[in-house]
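Researcher: Next entry in the queue.
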Amino acid sequence: MRAEMEKILQEQKFEKIRRDFERQKIDDQRKYTHEQWLEEQQKLLLEAKIQMAAQAMPEELMYEQQQFELPQPEP
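Model: Structure for this entry, 75 residues:
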């Protein structure tokens, strides 16, 4: 009788450990997915800010800026 009770307790402990592990795994995946989403949003925001700044830049400055760019080597 005592051995059966200990076996049941061991099984319950194991199931709790397994559930906790699975819960942590799901939480970690959610956190990773959220962090990836945040990084993508920051990237898109930065791209939009750069595009807005480029559109607001007077054409003369853009032309001057292009003059200072290094020519790309031809293959």
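Model: The two ends are 83 Å apart (CA to CA).
Researcher: Noted, moving on.
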